[in-house]
Amino acid sequence: MPDDDMKAELERLRRENDALKKGASEGTRMKVSDKGGLSVYGMGRFPVTLYKEQWLKLLNMSDEIRAFITENEARLKAKD
């Protein structure tokens, strides 16, 4: 690969990388995965992906999850 082509490709990859980094810092976002699951990005290093019925089951448990967190506050760690 000629130097000019390699430099152009390197610059394109840098721009693409910067755009991906910027998107990652913009908070959480959702998308439908290739297999039809709902993926939530921005919670950690990897997306959280569950199917529709799993998300609905989890959402229905929100009061129980909040109570559990409150009861176990001293043992749970917070990630910044």
Helix content: 40-55%
Name the poorly predicted regions. Answer: none
Structural class assignment: alpha+beta
Calculate Rg over CA atoms. 20 Å
What is the 3D shape? elongated
Strand order, largest beta sheet: 1-2-3
- Strand % is 5-15%
**Mean pLDDT across all residues, rounded?**
90
Spell the H/E element sequence: HEEEHH
The number of helical runs is 3
Oligomer: single chain
The largest sheet is: 3 strands, antiparallel
Can you describe this structure?
The structure is a single chain. This protein is an alpha+beta fold and 80 residues long. Helix content is 51%, strand content 14%. The protein contains 3 helices and 3 strands, in the order H-E-E-E-H-H. A 3-stranded antiparallel sheet has the order 1-2-3. A hairpin with a 5-residue loop joins strand 1 (29-32) and strand 2. It is elongated, with a radius of gyration of 20 Å. The model has no long low-confidence stretch (mean pLDDT 90).
Topology:
Blueprint: H1 3-24, E1 29-32, E2 38-41, E3 48-50, H2 52-60, H3 62-71
Antiparallel strand pairs: 1-2, 2-3
Notable features of this structure?
single chain; 80 residues; alpha+beta; 3 strands
Give a concise summary.
This protein has 80 residues and is of the alpha+beta class. It is 51% helix and 14% strand.
